Amino acid sequence: AAIVLREGDELIEVKRTDGDRNIFIATANGQCMLFNEKDVRSMGRVSTGVRGISLREGDSVIGMQVDAQGEYGLFVSENGQGKRTRLSDFTAHHRGGKGMICYKLTERSGKLVGFKAVEKEDDIMIVTTGGIIIRISCGSSTSTSTKRLACRIS
User: Fold this and answer.
1) Residues contacting residue 31 through CB under 8 Å, at least 6 positions apart
2) Strand, coil or helix: what is 69?
3) Among candidates 137, 144, 141, 143, which has minimal Cα distance to 152?
4) What pTM did the predictor assign?
């Protein structure tokens, strides 16, 4: 085994880095944790790893990105809302904390289902649960702060 997972845990992302990158973790309830990977101690192959973010009851991690992957974070909710925020707008914390609010959940937006680091020039494709494919340009929407509400993705 390459890693030991606790019961109920699952591995959702793996990234190769140079040892000096900032790590972003986003949760379904709109929390985001930013920390430098130097805060993570080196471990053997069969370890359980370290806690990146403390989850509240009913929350789950939806994505992990590295700052080298893009200048912006693109957040997408289960009801088709989304927003693009500069990753430099996030404040670094010590890993294992609760993080900060990166996406204000509303009844209209629902929970977050996707988080990716993107560039303004990127195009992305989103596949709905109904099988509909939506292609959008990441630069077609204006960049918003971490506190602003999202808009409909179309």
Assistant:
1) 53, 56, 59, 98, 99, 100, 101, 102
2) helix
3) 141
4) 0.83
Chain position carrying tokens 């200048």: 71
The whole-number pLDDT of residue 116 equals 92
Lowest mean pLDDT among 15-29, 81-95, 99-113, 135-149: 135-149
Q: Of the candidates 64, 148, 57, which has an alpha carbon nearest to the alpha carbon of residue 98?
A: 57
pLDDT for 34 equals 92
Neighbouring C-beta atoms of residue 37, cutoff 10 Å: 16
- 70-96: burial string, b at 16+ Cβ within 10 Å, e else: bbbbbbbbeebbbbbbebebbeebebe
* Contact between 8 and 39 (Cβ < 8 Å): no
Question: Any idea which residue has 């929970």 for tokens?
Answer: 111
Q: Kind of pairing, strands 133-137 and 123-127? A: antiparallel
| Residues 65-75: tens digit of each pLDDT | 999 899 999 99
Biggest CA–CA distance in the chain, Å, is 45
Place of tokens 């009801």: 79
